[in-house]
Amino acid sequence: MWFLVEQEGSLYLHARYSYSALIDDSALIRLNDTELAAYLAGDHDVLSDLATRVHNSAPYRAESKFFSRDLYRSADGPQYRKAVSAAIADHTWIAEQRRKR
């Protein structure tokens, strides 16, 4: 599962990953220029592909190319996690209200 979030013109992919019963977490990846260009050109599969690559790379390991891109691992990680969680919760609540109509 993944969500695309935006802040001040930058796009971020919040991608969940899990490995065994012990690891269940998310990574927050800012789209790089190539990923952003593909998405803006209409290739929305690039986001699903990116989420799959994040998951398959074991991003919790330093060897993963997504480990260093995961903003949740940065010094500002807790603030990112709080902001993204709030955005997802708000989006989910709005979607639920629309379904009730």
Describe this protein's structure.
This protein has 101 residues and is α+β, with helices and mostly antiparallel strands. The chain has one domain. The chain contains three helices and three strands; from the N terminus they run βββααα. It has helices spanning 33-40, 45-56, 77-100, and strands at residues 2-7, 10-19, 23-30. Strands 1-2-3 form a three-stranded antiparallel β-sheet, with helices on both faces. Strand 2 (10-19) and strand 3 form a beta hairpin. The longest helix has 24 residues, at 77-100. The two termini are 26 Å apart.
Question: What's the short story on this structure?
Answer:
The protein has 101 residues and is α+β, with helices and mostly antiparallel strands. It has one domain (2-100).
Ordered list of secondary-structure elements with their pairings:
Blueprint: E1 2-7, E2 10-19, E3 23-30, H1 33-40, H2 45-56, H3 77-100
Antiparallel strand pairs: 1-2, 2-3
